[in-house]
Design brief:
By secondary structure, the protein is of the alpha/beta class. It is 43% helix and 15% strand. Helix 3 crosses helix 4 and helix 13 runs antiparallel to helix 17.
Length: 493
Amino acid sequence: MPNNLRVFVTHRAIRSYIADHTPGGSLLEKMLVIDDFERRAQLFPNRRQIDDDQRNILLRQAARFEGFDLLKIERDFLRFIKSSPTILKFFEELAKEGVSYEMIEGADTYAEYENHLAVLKTLQSRYHELLDAGGYVDGTNAPHLYTLNEGYLKQFDAIHLHFEGYLSRYEVELLEKIAAVVPTFLHLQTSPHTEKMHERFAGLKLEADREYVLRLGAGEIVSETPLVSTYDVTAYPTPSRLFQSAVVKRAIHDMVESDGIAPEAIAVVLPDEDFAHTLGLYDDEDNFNYAMGAPFAKQALYRKLEALYAYHQEASHENTLRLQRLNLTPERYAMLWDHPMAPESLQTELLSWASEIEDAGIRHTYLEQVHQMAKILPELTGHTFAEVMHLFLGRLSKVTTDLAGGGKVTVMGALESRGVAFEGVIVCDFNDGFVPKENLKDLYLNSAVRHHAGLPTRNDRQNLQLDLYHKLLSRAKKSVIIYVENEENIPSS
């Protein structure tokens, strides 16, 4: 059997491919998700990956120059940390699309962004100087620093990438370079909403509603199969988000009893994954399994730390009652919050809370985050305990743990649905604001400037989400979409 590598967009897509293509007992090809593959395919000599919190700290250091105030972003530590991800995403987008500030200035016919661009250019230059000094690599400089890991790539006879979504210019360039080392094939399905991907391979003249296999590097269409998209979709309005839980349960019942769909073949898709908590409150029958896991923010310890932090920020009556409900007294931390602490003391304080977690697995997850945080504590010397806690709570809020519940119906986020097919699909929160979701990268430039500079526009991003739901719903035998309609919410446009 050839030593091939298959690359997919999600782990669930890998499991789906195995179930459909590998009968019991057969030898499996090697399989990876695309993030792991890109990480292994690239080398960054004398560089190490930077932590997200370190990025925010370095960016704040880089912002210490005259003129930064034009961006209307405060340098205060806590306020700056809230704004920095937006700036870093913009820098990453420029790097991955190969767009320079000069190209944007050329597209900015009326010089609407001239002053802001000058400040951002200076900020990015100073930030990259700090990355270079520390020997760091991140998404803003990786496209300019990588070399191919040919030793890793040459072990394969061929690489097959099963892709859904959007490939940046950087990713296309990376794949083309990989194709020069080992035969590389791109498997993709087009739709009326994938025109941006068609542009990436303009020489091949791709058409909508086709399943293609492309040989990269050779500029060759290996195979082309027409696709027929059919829908059986019912839309249900509800007066509030809470009511959606009842509609979900009824829709599952109808799919199983009336349409003959097995529970294992049903997916509940959440554009806003936080709704999983609400859904779980009404899952008396334990029908659901949760692909996204449980947010650490729902753990008792996180709620206590968050309550103490909120009380420190504002000793309001509401926050005082919150502490009382959680049996907390703020006196122990009164002398800590506003005083700088040594890194060792900070780590000791964070570790001391682990004893409050009874579940061994969740305690291990917490301790892992403490040890990750410990790596950057020396860079936080001089910062107050409150500032460190703000960073630490932000880190914990992004962590998930295994969620109890081994039901047969899968609950997943929208992005996790890429590359898989379900017979029954139920989508909640089909409202403007959730479908499509707004993108932080769009804040700095309007669509006209983006288009002329060669950056993805808001319309391009909406088409990407349209394509996601188009594939999800057209692959299903039966679909239900649920939306909230009241004075504050309208259905998705």
